[in-house]
Amino acid sequence: MFSTGTDPVPETSGIVGNTVLIPTRFVWPYGGRRVFLTGSFTRWSEHLPMSPVEGCPTVFQAICSLTPGLHQYKFFVDGEWRHDERQPSVTGNYGIVNTVLLAREPDPFPANLIPETHGSRSNMDVDNDAFQRVVTLSDGTLQEAAPRISEADIQLSRHRVSVFLSTHTAYELLPESGKVIALDINLPVKQAFHILYEQGIPVAPLWDFYKGQFVGVLSALDFILILRELGNHGSNLTEEELETHTISAWKEGKMKVRQIDGNARPFQRHLIHAGPFDSLKDLALKILQNEVATVPIIHSSSPDGSFPQLLHLASLSGILKCICRHFRHSSGSLPILQQPISAIPLGTWVPKIGESNGRPLAMLRPRASLSSALSLLVQAQVSSIPIVDDNDSLLDIYSRSDITALAKDRAYAQIHLDEMSVHQALQLGQDANPSFGFFNGQRCQMCLRSDPLHKVMERLANPGVRRLVIVEAGSKRVEGIISLSDVFRFLLG
């Protein structure tokens, strides 16, 4: 298990003469290109290179064998001397340096050296904040010690977020330039999904020429339901009919269906939309209450609402970006921002052994059928599912938007959902478009349980990132998931 800065490695200590050497792990979790470690144990003359942790490229570690006693150390990051503000420190001959006290035996990090979490910190470019500290209980077991936050601080933070969202409007979400793609409702379904794939978008508003208004949206979920309908031997919709089946015909047929997999869930008959001067709070609540991913921002200068203009597709990620931008330089006004995500009621976590009240986390093995993946996406009402190995370590992720890759070259006509595995489906999509589904070079957007809330929010504020998979450092074992909806339900109380 990792600690913020140092942690004795649970291995047999080396012995030089009568001196016991304790293997000790040093961690720099704040990013960088080249990170080195130096300290009193190297006589401050040797710089030891630190290596990125597998699965967490912004977390660096190094293991040194140290003698028992008090040691001082510092990090050399991209040509600058740095120290870990969350670790014990003193001012010495080399400026501010961190300290570590090692007992004669490789005990866990002493509880009396665990620093308090301060409300104010410097604005470092932190991608992975401090790992959870560990304390030793009376029975010798290890338990994570998460900083506590009072209910008063939570309510204060929620109030300030609510005030901000109530006094800012959807107009602030509009980009300076860009394009919004809308589809004619009489367009063939097959052609519509090909457009979604080619444009790399998961959803598009629908325009009814005869009514002169926007009447709905077409999303990847529609394509999933259509593919499942095609795979149903009792279906009236054939692959040939899909070539001419219009979006309008599909939507009309879908609205007659009141159940999905036996669960009553009526579809909206009217378009959920908002105006440019609606508050961000009302917009966020509209998205949450209607369980939609996006809400079109529509404006009409006519009193009767004619000649509407589609200005933007608003999403929770855009609203979250506004929150992050506003509080970035005044994070002290929101006490919850510095809290690790494991210390606040947020997200869905893998139930611990013996827990019966935990909600199971939807995960799949790569050999699972595509049919089971699509069914799980619909039943669990989630945007993506982690793909894990037999040890529950994260391998990949399958998202609703991945399904649109099957629209290319009519790939859906050559496959059987029950016979194709999730791994094969992902490979098919990546072969067709190697960059499809990637963000910042990664398909799987991850975080650690020790990451502070503000860093999780900043990652989720990026377009296309709707869920973060919480993994264990090193092993990448899935520990939970945090979604955009989770964050907003927490912030809005």
Q: Can you tell me about this structure?
A:
The protein is α+β, with helices and mostly antiparallel strands and 493 residues long. The protein is built from eleven helices and 26 strands. The strands form eight sheets. Strands 4, 5, 8, 9, 10 and 11 form a six-stranded antiparallel β-sheet that branches. Strands 1, 2, 3, 6 and 7 form a five-stranded antiparallel β-sheet that branches. It has a four-stranded mixed β-sheet with strand order 21-26-25-24. It is globular. A hairpin with a 5-residue loop joins β22 (384-388) and β23 (394-399). α7 (316-327) packs across α10.
Supply the key terms.
493 residues; alpha+beta; CBS-domain; 3 domains; 23% helix; globular
Outline of the structure:
By secondary structure, the protein is of the alpha+beta class. The protein has helices spanning 151-166, 189-199, 220-231, 239-242, 247-256, 280-290, 316-327, 370-379, 422-432, 453-460, 484-491, and strands at 6-8, 14-16, 19-28, 35-39, 48-49, 51-53, 56-66, 69-77, 80-82, 89-92, 95-102, 133-136, 142-145, 183-184, 203-208, 213-219, 259-260, 263-264, 294-299, 309-315, 348-349, 384-388, 394-399, 446-447, 467-471, 478-483. It has 3 domains: 6-144, Immunoglobulins (Immunoglobulin-like, Sandwich); 166-319, CBS-domain; 330-491, CBS-domain (Roll), CATH 3.10.580.
